[in-house]
Specification:
alpha/beta, elongated, 41% helix, 225 residues, 4-stranded antiparallel beta sheet
C-alpha cells in the first residue's frame, strides 16, 4: 500500500518513514501542503497522513482540496492540536481519523489498517435511500430532506446521521459511534461526539415539532419518534 506522509518536522517525518516502511508500506514524504498536493496528483496513493500546521498550505486546507477531488482516499490527521474544536475542524475538513502527538506507532498502524480495510469494502452495494419518519437520506446524491425541506450537512454530520438511520430505535453509545463513524476509540477527555449530535439536532430537529434525536443519559443517543 502506498502512503503519502505530509510532515514538516524532519524528526517526526523520519520516524514515520522508518516505522511505516518496517510495516511494509510504501512511503513518500512531503514537507508542506503545496508540494503534497502536487505529489498526490502525480501518484496513486491509498492513504494520506498529514499534520495540520504546515507551511504554504495548512493541513486543513490540504485535506479539503484532496477530498473535493478524491473523496474516497482516507486521510489521517496526525497533530499536536488535540482539543475538541481542533478535532471538529479536522473532521469537518473531511479527515477520516485524528491522532494526537505524541503517538504510538502500533496505534497509528492499526488505524491505517482499519481505514484501508474499510476502503476495500466501500464499493459493496448498499441501499440508495434511507428513511425514518419524515426524514429521508439519498446515499447516492448525498441529499437529506425532512418533510421535503433540504438539510445541508457536513461530511461527518452526514455519516453520523447515516449510522443513526441505519440503526433506528436503538441506543447508540459514544463508544459505538466513535468506532463505527470515526473508526477510532472514544476519547473520554473530549466531547466531539456530543458536539456533532448537537449540530445534527440544530439541523434535523430545531425547526420541526417532532424531535427525532434523543439522549439517553449515561447511555448514548437514539433516533426515534
Amino acid at each position: 500500500m502506498k502512503l503519502l506522509v505530509v510532515e514538516d518536522d524532519l524528526r517526526v517525518s523520519e520516524l514515520l518513514q522508518r516505522g511505516l516502511t518496517e510495516a511494509n508500506f510504501d512511503i513518500q514524504l512531503a514537507y508542506d501542503g503545496k508540494s503534497a498536493e502536487r505529489l498526490f496528483a502525480s501518484g496513486d496513493f491509498d492513504l494520506i497522513i498529514t499534520d495540520i500546521i504546515l507551511p504554504k498550505v495548512d493541513g486543513i486546507e490540504f485535506c479539503k482540496r484532496i477530498k473535493s477531488k478524491t473523496p474516497s482516499v482516507p486521510i489521517i490527521m496526525l497533530t499536536a492540536l488535540g482539543t475538541t474544536d481542533d478535532k471538529v475542524e479536522g473532521f469537518d475538513a473531511g479527515a477520516d481519523d485524528y491522532l494526537v502527538k505524541p503517538f504510538e506507532m502500533r496505534e497509528l498502524i492499526a488505524r491505517i489498517n482499519a481505514l484501508l480495510k474499510r476502503k476495500s469494502y466501500s464499493n459493496q452495494p448498499e441501499r440508495i435511500l434511507l428513511q425514518f419518519a419524515d426524514l429521508e437520506m439519498n446515499l447516492h446524491t448525498k441529499e437529506v430532506k425532512r418533510m421535503g425541506q433540504d438539510i445541508n450537512l457536513t461530511p461527518k454530520e452526514f455519516k453520523l446521521l447515516k449510522f443513526m438511520m441505519e440503526n433506528p430505535e436503538r441506543v447508540l453509545s459514544r463508544q459505538e459511534i466513535s468506532k463505527k463513524v470515526w473508526e477510532m476509540d472514544f476519547d473520554t477527555g473530549t466531547n466531539f461526539i456530543d458536539v456533532y449530535i448537537n449540530y445534527l439536532r440544530k439541523k434535523v430537529d430545531k425547526n420541526f415539532n417532532q424531535k427525532l434525536i434523543h439522549t439517553k443519559t449515561g447511555m448514548g443517543f437514539v433516533l426515534k419518534n
